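Write out structure tokens for Cro/Cl family transcriptional regulator.
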Amino acid sequence: MPKGTKISLKAARTNANMTQEDAANALSEYFGMKISRQRIMEYEKHPATVPPGFGHGFATIYRLPIDAINFSN
């Protein structure tokens, strides 16, 4: 990915070959608490609402640098 390029949360998930359910399960394991598929869906629709900790979680499970993911609407 060229430097400075940002992709959406959905694109990051798709590129990681994960479903929303897969992402929810991976984040549940990452945080040690239940994360629902619906929450993943909402964050993909409204990325500006993603808390910083979740941003780091998404970057970790999708194996991307956090600055490669677009967290604005």
